[in-house]
Each structure stands twice: as structure tokens, then as C-alpha cells.
Amino acid sequence: MSKYQSINKMNCNSVKQKLIFYLDGDLAVDEANLVKCHLVNCGECRFYYTELKKSLSIIETDKSKEIDGKFYSKLSKRLDDIESTHETTSLKYKLVQVFAYAAVVAIGIFIGLFAENEINNISENKNTEFVEQTIVWNDFNQEPIESFLIAE
Amino acid sequence: MDDNNLIEQIKHKDRHAFQLLVEKYQQMIINVCYGFIQNYQDAEDVAQEVFIDIYVTAYKFRADSKLSTWIYRIAVNKSLNYIRDNKKRKSSKSIFTQSNDNKNSIIDIEDDAYNGSDYLLENEERKINLHNAISSLPENQRTAFILSKYEDLSYKEISKVMSLSISSVESLLFRAKQNLQKKLFECYKKLNN
Ligand SMILES: [Zn+2]
After folding, report:
1. Nearest to B130 among A16, A58, A75 (CB)
2. Do B177 and B112 share a structural domain?
3. CB A17 within 8 A of CB B177
């Protein structure tokens, strides 16, 4: 391999590394001009450049593909389905809520009634205790006071 | 109706506003999804999910960012999730089928396919090679590349969508292009030899 060829090869490698940036207009003007000149004189780099250009142009074709005319109507239908499922779910949820609320109220009333009974019982008991206690106290009051306490 | 009005109406479940939003953004969303998924039918399905998400979660949108930025973000996330789920499904499927399809590896372009006699086949193979090369990029490089190439977004806009600094986006795009070029050159080498 001659000196010229080896320099050329090195240039080719560095040019190839820059091709995608050259195509995208990312290179500084001077650098872009060097690549441009190289491409005029080098078949191999030109081959890679042409191939890369063809490949990247596919993206432009991809982008311009026409959208399915029914895109929105399909979407709208999916949304209807979701909303009706959501409504059914929230209706079920509301029913469950109502039942839960009713159950809580019923339990509340039941506990209320039960508690009222209990309180009545307790207060009856308390009254008896009070009476008994009163009697006790009365008994105590009736006990004879120690004579030394009276002595003063 | 501008974007802010549209999204405010959509927050109140206004279907007409939603339709206007879909008409305005459908091409852009489908392109982003297609950039990731590389299949039109699937890209349209995912795009529909993006719009459903927009409709259902419109109340989450804060007016301090651009509506398009928010929409792009949803589209990127939905597409990446779709690919991840699909990969899982594919890998669990291949255990049973011992699938030998080579669709995920760079296709060898044989002489027959590239003697100019079959332009469509050549083009199809070129397309598959490009799509495989894009798919082989790491997720963040791929996202930056797709937003730049399929949507022509500026570095600044990409940085908003990806929540990155502009210099990070520059570096991601630089590496994405380098890697993509490398992958494509491997295909061209086979043609050149
Ligand atoms: Zn060269």
C-alpha cells in the first residue's frame, strides 16, 4: 500500500464517520466542504453516502403514510365502551355504597336500641345500688359515734 | 380553539373538543408510535391508547407546560411500554416454538435481492435494515432520534419531552446517529463486497 493510499484510506474512515452528520447538515461549513470534495473523488465513500441517504429517506416515506380514515370513529367507539363500563362500574359502586350506608344505619339503630335497653338496665341497677348505698350510709350515720369524739 | 381551551373542554369530557384535538395531533402521535413500533397497525392501536389516556387523564395536565410536550411524553411512554410487553410475550413464546425467525437481526442482503431486478424487495430490505438499526439503539438514544427525525423537534423541545438538559439531548443524538450509521454500514459492507 502506497503512502497516498494509506492517507486516502485514513481520510475515507474519517469521512465515513461523518457521513450521517454531513447528511443532516450538522457539520461546520469547512468540514462539510472537505467531505463534499472527498465524495467527488472517492467512489467507495460515495457508495456509503448514497446508501445512507437512501436508508434515511425511508423515514420521510414513513412519515407521510396516510392515516386510516376511521381512526377517530374507532377511537370514539373505544371511548364509548370505556365510558359505559365506567358508568356500570360506578353505578355498581354507588349501589354498594348505598347498601353499605343502609347497613351502617341499620347497625347504628340496632346498637342504639340495644344500648338504650342496656342503659335502662344499668340505670335501674344503679338506682338499687344507690338505694342500698344510701341505706349503708344511713346505717353508718346511725352507728353510735365514738365517745372520745364527742368528748371535746 | 387553542390548545389550552381544547384541554380545558376535554377536562369536562367535551367530545367535540376531543375530536378537534385528535384531528390536530393524530399524525404526529402515529408517527412517534410508528418510529418506535415500526408497524402501522400496532402504531395506530398504541396511538389510540395515547388519545384515550389524554381524554381520561386530562385533569392531570398542568398549563405550565406545552400540551404537545405532554402528549409526546405519553406517546413515548406508551410506545416503550408496548415494546417491552411485546418483547416479554415474544421471549416467552419462543421458548415453546424455538422460533427461528430472524426478523430482529440485521438481514443479509443477498446478491439476488440486490441486483436491481427487484426494486420493491430491495426497498423492503432496506426498510427492515433501517428499522432494525433504530430498534437496536438504547431507549434514550432511540427516543431522542425518533423525536428529532420523525417529528423534527428541536433540541429544546426534545429536552422538554425527555426532561433532560439540551446538552444531554445533543450528546444522545450524536451517539444515536453514530450507532445507527455503524449498524447500517454493516449492511452496506455486505453489498459492497
Ligand atoms: Zn473515501
Report:
1. A58
2. yes
3. no
Residue A95 distance to chain B (closest CA, Å): 23
Domain-terminating residue out of B58, B89, B120: B89
Residue B41 lies in a domain: yes
Task: Check CB contact under 8 Å for A52 and B181.
Answer: yes
pLDDT band at B89 (very low <50, low <70, confident <90, very high): confident
Q: How far apart are CA B44 and CA B85, in angstroms?
A: 17
Using CB atoms, pick whichever of B22, B181, B188 lies closest to residue A72. Answer: B22
Q: Which residue of A has its CA nearest to B41?
A: A68
Q: What ipTM describes this predicted complex? A: 0.81
What pLDDT is stored for residue A10 in this prediction? 52
Specify the number of domains making up chain B.
Answer: 2
Between chains, do B150 and A59 touch, taking CB under 8 Å as contact? Answer: yes
CA A46 – ligand 1 centroid, Å: 7
DSSP conformation class of B1: -
B99 occurs within a structural domain: no
Q: What string of DSSP letters covers A77-143?
A: HHHHHHHHHHHHHHHHHHHHHHHHHHHHHHHHHHHHHHHHHHHHHHHHHHHHHHHHHHHHHHHHHHS
One domain for residues B119 and B58: no
Tell whether A3 lies on the interface with B, counting CB pairs under 8 A.
no
Note whether B111 and B85 are same-domain residues. no
Q: Which of B48, B150, B177 lies at the smallest CB-CB distance from A21?
A: B177
CATH number at residue B28: 1.10.1740.10
Within a domain: B142: yes
Distance A38 CA to ligand 1 centre (A): 6
pTM of the model: 0.73
Q: Which of residues 76-105 of A touch B (CB under 8 A)?
A: 76, 78-79, 82
CA distance A9 to A142: 129
* Domain encompassing residue B11: 1-89
Kindly state whether residue B94 falls inside one of the protein's structural domains.
no
Does residue B138 have a pLDDT over 60? yes
Both B115 and B182 in one domain: the answer is yes
